[in-house]
Specification:
The protein is α+β, with helices and mostly antiparallel strands. It folds into three domains: 11-209, no CATH class; 225-295; 303-422, 2-Layer Sandwich (Heat Shock Protein 90). It is 64% helix and 9% strand. The chain has 14 helices and seven strands. The chain has helices at residues 11-42, 49-57, 60-70, 75-78, 98-107, 110-145, 147-153, 171-207, 211-264, 269-295, 298-303, 305-315, 334-355, 391-400; strands at 160-162, 166-168, 320-325, 360-367, 370-377, 404-408, 415-422. The strands form two sheets. It has a five-stranded mixed sheet with strand order 3-4-5-7-6. A two-stranded antiparallel ribbon has the order 1-2. Helix 1 packs antiparallel against helix 2. The longest helix has 54 residues, at 211-264. The protein is elongated and about 125 Å long.
Amino acid sequence: MARRDHARSCWPWRSAAYLLTGAVAGLVALVALVVTAAAGAALTLVLVGLPLLAAVALAGLPVAALERRRLRLMQPVLDPEREREPVRNPHRTPDAHGPWGWLRTRVRERATWRELGHAVLFATVLWPLDALALSVGLLLPLAVLATPLLMATVGDGDEARVAKLWTVTSWPGAWASALLGAVLLVIGTYVLGLAAGARAALARLLLTAPAAELDARVTELTRSRARLVDAFEAERRRIERDLHDGAQQRLVALTMTLGLARLDAPPGPLADQLAKAHDEATRTLSELRELIHGIHPQVLTDYGLEAALTDAADRSPVPVDVHLDLPEGHRPPRAVESAAYFVASEALTNIARHSGATRATVTGTHEAGRLTLLVRDDGRGGADPGGGTGLTGLADRVSVLDGRLTLTSPPGGPTELRVELPCPLPPSAPDPSA
């Protein structure tokens, strides 16, 4: 509105389109509400009208959805920094699937009833105001501007009725009226902008999610995400413990029994079968140990991050140097420890499989409440996060903890994977190894 070229910009026409669609939609909403409410009231005695009355109660939903789409016409006026961002929907995702779950969620929301009030206001008050602003800001100036055309066509060059307000009987008067219409049209662009802007601001206030409500949602989502991470890590530890104490111990006993039976059996087909069974049990036990270690290594639970990374480095086919500078007597939270370990472990796996490196290093520090882990190798470089190396999953895992993962891998190397995790240390943490 404050721009000098407002009258020559697209905003007067967008404002006119917003007001015109509002007038048409409001009239349709008025007819639909009146007809549905009257039919529902008349048919209530035979119970057929109850669904119609329920439809009236929920009529604000489609009206609000249409209004939010129309608000995109005026979005840069309302918030220039969010020109391409869709208008925020205040409704929550239904708690359960199906129509009944959707209905329960919508009925319990304040936004549903706020939208019903907007629909009633829209159908009774707002659309006539839209039509009035459109008439004053656009239709009247155009009618005055078209006086010479009307005089030449309808008035046969003798007279013209200007907007049914006055009569022009001469051509100088017709051109003077046209000049007045041009001035009124320029003024009308500002009238349209003011009316549409005020109308859109009211709709946005009633139909979009308030900032405080969105902040509360973000806070709750952050907390629930943290709870899910903790629950996920606890479940991984439980599965690892059950496999370690249950299936693995039984396989160890089975392997020992088959080994003893193999030694006691005389040479022949039976000894050969026992040897095959013993080898198969041994391979299964080895695979189960690798699976358990991949789920959640026991050394991480018992001795902490540095011992777990040292163990992963020992098992890597590429020589790895581990240097961690962490405060003594303190351990990071379990979720942070687990995320840091699995990021480094996956990085070492990728180094062994894809990099062609001859050596790698893992360094870690804790400063200003953040744990920083850096994995570096001297390989060929050119690592692509979208190439199926699991880096996208690691980045998602780090982002859950509000951390950051960055990868630097120019062609020819070296490759550096850096992860930063918020890591407030507790006042004290006993060392399990003690």
